[in-house]
Design goal:
CATH superfamily: Intergrase catalytic core
Helix content: 40-55%
Largest sheet: 3 strands, antiparallel
Number of helices: 10
Strand content: under 5%
Mean pLDDT: 86
Strand order of the largest sheet: 1-2-3
CATH class: Mainly Alpha
Number of domains: 1
Distance between the termini: 34 Å
Radius of gyration: 16 Å
CATH architecture: Orthogonal Bundle
Low-confidence stretches: none
Structural class: mainly alpha
Amino acid sequence: MTPSPRKDEHYPAEVLTAEEVSALLRQCSPKAPTGIRNRALIMVMYRCGLRISEALDLKPSDIDTTKATVRVLDGKGHKPRTVAIDDGALAFVQRWMDTRRSLGLKNGTLFCTLQGGHLHHTYVRVMLKRIAAKAGIDKQVRPHGLRHSHAAELVAEGTPVSVIRDQLGHASLAVTDRYLRDIAPADVIAMGRCRTWTGEQA
């Protein structure tokens, strides 16, 4: 049985490197609409640290391309928050938004099917597993692992825990502290130390 979004959060943390994320992106077509969408979705989970449910509930209006922010209206505990998105990740999202408009999709969620329907978390898990195998990544690549990878990068860059708490949408610093202790120090050290995206381009 496919785990629910919440059960997925309880798997052991498997942090991905920037090179491994680039390898995932290379398995998604940069020209086909589904590939453009999947690349943008991966980048939102990875570079914004969103939970899969938060990413799949986003609407186009939640993306502020001028301020480079993403608005999460219904986070865990039904708490809204605004998170940062870097220019590199935003380029992937903008590419999908342009493609989405060209397909005549005006309403509904941002990361929708090509017919405008809601994208299911099961599809995302299967897609990540499939492209990870094609990329030769032997880690368990799950949606929440992209969130772990985001947190690990922030730690490696020396980001204050209070900022990480707000970015991840945790209820308290204690929750964030426990969360970060689940990430192996060796994996943290292996992460890139700069927030400038230098991998696969949109």
